[in-house]
Amino acid sequence: MTAHAVPTDQKRAGEKRLVALVGRPNAGKSSLYNVLTLGDAHVGNYPGITVDVLEAEVTLPSGSKVTIADLPGLYSLTSVVDVDTDEGVARKFVDDAKKRGQVIEIVQVVDATQLSMSLRMTEELIGLGVPLVVVITQKDVAESHGIALDTAVLEKELGVPVLYVSAREESTRGVVFEALAKEATAPSKKPELAMTALAKKVTSVRADVRDAERRRTWTSRADAVLLHPALGPFVFLSIMALSFAAVFLVADPATAAMDFVLGKLRGFIVLHAGHGLVASFFADGLLGGAGTVLAFMPQIVILTIAMEVLEASGYLARGAFLVDRLLRLLGLSGRSFLPLLMGHACAVPAIASTRVIRDPKERLTTILVLPLMTCSARIPTYGLVLAAFFGHKSALFRASIFVFLYFAGVLMGLVASLVLRRTATRGKSLPLVLEMPAYRVPQPRLVLSKAKKAATRFLRDVGTTILAVSAVLWVLLTVPMPGGHDAATATPMEKSIAAHVGRAIEPVTQPAGFDWRIDVGLIGSFGAREVMVGTMGVIFGLEKAEDNPGPLAQRMRDAKNPDGTNVYGTRNALALLAFFVIACQCMSTVAAIKRETKSWRWPVFVLAYTYALAYVAAVVTYNVAGLFS
Amino acid sequence: MAASDQRARTRLLADIAAGETVRIREVELPAETAAWLAAVGLSPGEDVTLLRRAILGGPLHLRLARGGELAVARDLGTRITIEDI
């Protein structure tokens, strides 16, 4: 292969160089990306690449700007190029950039303690004919293991720049930028030495530390407990339950505080603008709708932090190891564990993350059951129902129901996958191979940036979709049904368009204990389940707003039928929870399934089976609960 | 019967004891899968240590002499033959 400097006509002003970070999973790519970009990240827009590629623009000391893109972790660019796996995505990304004529440079991120295996990929990357810089990270870890690397020899033999850094140190940024600022040339020759021999040549291990390493390191000592046959699963379940309970217990006061602020704001509007239509639009429509949903942001942030800490610490791989046998019984494997767990934050990125599952049937099954995992958008409804109908019980009791709802979602998912693997996605699976990274202390900055992203996405949702739906709903609940024949005693809302629609389907949902108000809520939340709380906020804001200015939960609990009985009881609440555990009320998820399965068949299937199942579960719950009350 | 003799002596990765370090002899899988496994670090000539097994026939927890640890399905371990070092 001949050297080719990047043609100058491609370097015209305005054309940004693209720097792609490539490396094995857990090589420290994310840490390096974060140090280089100072935590800045947005999802890049690359046609045909559906998995999220994070990228950020940085300015080199020379003043030139480059775009840094973080590609998914992979083991090999050449072997098994299946476009639907992470390896395929990375390959396509590089090929597309070359095709576009964009100046691309690859930074291979290498874990110093796994040099020998990583050099295999270095050889592949050299063969691509694209400028390459090898950044070896985890210098601190390697040194503590007594491993020393001769990077000068490595650089000479490979014919590409080699840097040796600790990705967590600030100084790393300058070192890498300096290397990127140099004229980028593609490697000119194939390395002469075999990679295994080369790795041996540049690595030396100090004997005294080798002995020290033979002692149990921190990771294997932790594994002895966390992967213990009896203790391990117990710790695992406890950690999961604690995380979900923390979401509830820590965020509950935060939500109450937010509710209080909203109540004051509402009082302020009514005080200054009176009870007119305009005031009602702001107080009941926008504030009651979107504002009520906003109160659930703390939960979503805390859940995201819990997930990120578990993932970044390396514990999730242990979870996968522990549950592999169980998932295997149900036709999945430990590989499905990570996407399924991620689904508890949001199904959309989790569906994209199923690309780590190499088996097509298993991947499809995971995608199909992912909507059953309790995503953070369900939290507002759970929170509202728990506050409304179990508010008099202890916080611990409510937290237990909350945790139970999470496990109910998981259980439904497992049952669904068991059925699917015997019907729609029948077939044999590829066996599991999964990296078990050493335990690490999660980097607060990385975790917080993820939390910030989740919060922003939620805020955007509230600011756009939920606000819009709340506004439309307010109109539908205020404008009377044209040509409607209502009793003279009917309230304005009972005469509204929405009420008429809700009452039309009431007979169908009656067996589940849903009245027309809940039906209106369910219609409103068909596209996004977090709208439910906003809808209820609007409905109960318009109804009895004067004589019951308390929080939404209180107003729902106190809602009375004309005959003086309560509209909702515990059994209605439980039925509604059952419905929300199962129904796929999320168009973003449907779109993600369409994108990943490349057909309409599966998203339609998911909608159909989850709604049917949700309805049955709600009816059963309502009637069983009726037996006890 | 040399062949059956050899078979009798062939041990599988799935069958070694926890704590034992062995060398991979052969990966008896389709070429495509074997190539990917090699990229991950499981190829003939590599030394691996079995750290533990998950309960009830769950995955094997391996440490690669080259660095890194893997969880590998027990099924896969039955397709990989090994030799003593």
**End-to-end C-alpha gap of chain A:** 80 Å
And the CATH topology of the largest domain in chain A? Rossmann fold
Mean pLDDT of chain B: 86
Overall shape of chain B: it is globular
Strand tally of chain A is 10
Total individual domains of chain A: 3
The fraction of residues in strands of chain B falls at 35-45%
Largest interface: A-B, 35 and 30 residues
CATH class call of chain B: Mainly Beta
Order of helices and strands of chain B: HEEHEEEHE
**Biggest sheet overview of chain A:** 7 strands, mixed
CATH homologous superfamily of the largest domain in chain A?
A: P-loop containing nucleotide triphosphate hydrolases
Helix content of chain B: 25-40%
Structural class computed from helices and strand pairing of chain B: alpha+beta
CATH class of the largest domain in chain A: Alpha Beta
CATH architecture of chain B: Roll
Report on this model:
The complex is a heterodimer of chains A (629) and B (85). Chain A starts with 16 loop residues before the first strand and ends with a helix. Helices cover 59% and strands 7% of the residues of chain A. Chain A folds into three domains: 8-214, Rossmann fold (3-Layer(aba) Sandwich); 232-428, no CATH class; 481-628, no CATH class. Chain A has helices at residues 29-37, 86-100, 115-127, 139-144, 151-158, 171-181, 195-202, 207-214, 218-226, 231-273, 277-294, 297-313, 315-329, 334-342, 347-353, 360-369, 379-389, 395-422, 444-478, 497-509, 516-524, 531-542, 552-558, 570-582, 587-597, 601-628; strands spanning 17-23, 42-43, 54-59, 65-70, 104-111, 132-137, 147-149, 162-164, 203-205, 433-435. Chain A has 629 residues and is α/β, with parallel strands linked by helices. Chain B has one domain (11-84): SH3 type barrels (Roll), CATH 2.30.30. The longest helix of chain B is centred in the middle third of the chain and has 10 residues, at 31-40. The model of chain B has no long low-confidence stretch (mean pLDDT 86). With 85 residues, chain B is of the alpha+beta class. In chain B, strand 4 and strand 5 (69-72) form a beta hairpin. Chain B has a six-stranded antiparallel beta sheet. The interface between A and B is medium-sized, with 35 and 30 residues. Strand 10 of chain A pairs antiparallel with strand 5 of chain B.
